[in-house]
Design a protein that fits this description.
102 residues, alpha/beta, three-stranded mixed sheet, 31% helix, 24% strand
Length: 102
């Protein structure tokens, strides 16, 4: 999935960009600003323009008892139905928690 571009002859400098939203746009900006005489190699390792922050995949239902368990079960069922549409997210990354409040 790496994308590489060398400007000029054999490069004097090498720039490695990992990816994500910021990485993609940094690589595009460098590509526009660098000239062939700069002799710089820019490698973008992952050209997906998003970064998945997995802690956001934890759902917490506040309030135990029957209602809390039912809501958590519905969220869990919904996530398991939706996940096949997102093959880069594993089921282990999605968590549903019930917390009892007093």
């Amino acid at each position: 999935m790496a994308r590489q571009r060398t400007l000029g002859g054999e490069p004097d400098r090498r720039v490695l960009i990992i990816g994500g939203f910021g990485g993609v746009y940094t690589a595009l900006g460098l590509e526009r600003q660098l000239r062939p005489e700069d002799r710089t190699e820019v490698t973008l390792v992952n050209n997906d323009n998003f970064f998945l922050y997995t802690p956001l995949l934890t759902f917490v239902v506040a309030g135990g008892g029957f209602t809390g368990v039912e809501v958590a079960g519905e969220i869990n069922d919904l996530m398991r139905q939706v996940l096949p549409s997102y093959p880069t997210i594993s089921q282990r990354e999605v968590r549903v928690r019930v917390r009892r409040t007093t």
